[in-house]
Amino acid sequence: MVFARDTRRSLAAAVDLVNTLPVTDVDRVDRLVTPDDLRAYLADHPYTGSFTRDQAEVDAVRAIRPRLRGLWVTDREGAVPLVNAMLRDANALPQLVIHEGYDWHIHATGDDEGLATRILVETAMAFVDIIRSDEYDRLRVCAADDCLSVYVDYSKNGSKRYCDTGNCGNRMNVNAYRRRKAAETT
């Protein structure tokens, strides 16, 4: 599975944004609450255009997270109306651009649009690629029984089951080992 560089970046940004929501049934910590939280996110995932980095912008970005998460909890056909709505709501007009050390890629909103709109549209454009390439099964919610994190499975054989947010894979493997050992002793 090979996606364009901008698609992978948009997917990584969407994963990290969705995963600012509380990620486990136990861990109810929201990781995007303050302007400093938004600054940290933007340091890892730079966007072009204007920023206010104030609480109103934080609130707007927080508000789109459930909409983005919805892309991970549906199937390919169910994602199509979600993606189309994101593009339609922003009056997206895809155009090729090159800037700031990035090779040719697509922008579908102007730099004057709000950050939340730019994030929605870039994510929607990445999902257009996923849908068109029939790779929707690579979008996953962590298989750990107590984790809600999302991820994109880039493994060669598509067998990744756990997110990278916590130690879900290790934790679930230890739990399975302990269950097997307990069953052996009974």
Description of the structure:
This protein has helices at 5-18, 35-44, 55-69, 76-89, 115-132, 168-185; strands at 95-99, 102-107, 139-141, 150-152. α1 packs across α3, α1 (5-18) packs across α5 (115-132) and α3 packs parallel to α5 (115-132). It is mostly helical and 186 residues long. The radius of gyration is 18 Å and the shape is globular.
Structural features:
186 residues, mainly alpha, two-stranded antiparallel sheet, 6 helices, globular
Span between termini: 45 Å
Mean pLDDT metric:
91
Biggest sheet strand line-up: 1-2
Give the number of DSSP strands.
Answer: 4
In sequence order, what are the helices and strands, one letter per element?
Answer: HHHHEEHEEH
By secondary-structure content and strand pairing, the structural class works out as mainly alpha
Radius of gyration: 18 Å
Reported for the largest beta sheet, the result is: 2 strands, antiparallel
Strand content: 5-15%
Question: Looking at the structure, what is the overall shape?
Answer: globular
- Classify the helix fraction into a percent range: 40-55%
Low-confidence stretches: none
Number of helices: 6
TL;DR?
This protein is mainly alpha-helical and 186 residues long. The protein is built from 6 helices and 4 strands, in the order ααααββαββα. Helix 4 (76-89) packs antiparallel against helix 5.
